[in-house]
Amino acid sequence: MRRMLFLSGLVVVFAALQSPIDAGAATSFAVHMVQHLLLTMVAAPLLVLGAPVTLALRAMTPSHRQRLLSSLRSGPARILSSPIMAWSLFVGVLWGMHLTGLYELSLRNQGVHALEHVALLATAVLFWIPVVGLDPAPAGLSHAARILYLFLAMPAMAFLGLILYSADRVLYPTYAAIEGTSRALADQRLAGALMWTGTMFLIVPALGFVLLDWMRADDKEARRVDARLERVHATAVVAERPRP
């Protein structure tokens, strides 16, 4: 199952970057937004659910396995995997990319364009690890904290979409040169609406996943407590029996 999830994530990455979607993103901001939503809200959680670290550890020799484990326990890995850092990096990259000159530069420079995709996918993977990660991690979140983590991300991303939607000018001149100002502005508003509504729509299943996992964990803990109480009760009954 984990392998299928990981492979599904790779398929989504391929579809986003090596299909007509990537070509369309060069001429349409709305298509670009679909591409980014696929990378950050679909591919990244699928890759994380695939538990790639666990799969890699199983395939490695003992010496390589030890090296990887040492790297995962290092200071930089602990800092990057901390929920606060992961959340901040993901939201910061999204805002910084769309509200500075970086995105316009990526439309004119293929190297920056590629780095943009790497940054989006990498920070999205870090973002999803505390929520749906199955690999052992230095820092984790309780189920209640995971729900709060997601709830805080929703307005951060939705507000960015609202800024793009409500802008009264074309933010990226390259699109205006290709489509014309009026069409580029309408396309920009569509892109903002996609980020605004698409983020909400795609985060809701993650909230459901966390809630179900919370219920399963509570049920497992309840069964464990019941089993322990039954053992204690059985021991007490045996101890109370009169000896011949």
Describe the structure in your own words:
The chain has 244 residues and is mainly α. The chain is built from twelve helices and no strands. It has helices spanning 2-17, 20-25, 29-49, 52-59, 62-72, 75-81, 83-99, 102-108, 110-132, 143-166, 173-179, 181-240. α11 (173-179) packs across α12 (181-240). The mean pLDDT is 84.
Shape call: elongated
Share in helix: over 70%
Q: What value does the average pLDDT take?
A: 84
**How many helices does DSSP assign?**
12
C-alpha termini separation: 56 Å
C-alpha-based Rg, rounded: 23 Å
What structural category do the secondary elements indicate? Answer: mainly alpha
Q: How many E strands?
A: 0
Strand content: under 5%
Element order: H for helix, E for strand: HHHHHHHHHHHH
Provide tags for this entry.
244 residues, mainly alpha, 12 helices, 85% helix, 0% strand
Task: Provide a compact summary of the structure.
This protein is mainly α and 244 residues long. The protein has helices at 2-17, 20-25, 29-49, 52-59, 62-72, 75-81, 83-99, 102-108, 110-132, 143-166, 173-179, 181-240.
Secondary-structure blueprint of this entry?
Elements: H1 2-17, H2 20-25, H3 29-49, H4 52-59, H5 62-72, H6 75-81, H7 83-99, H8 102-108, H9 110-132, H10 143-166, H11 173-179, H12 181-240
Helix pairs in contact: 1-3, 3-9, 3-12, 7-9, 7-10, 8-9, 10-12, 11-12
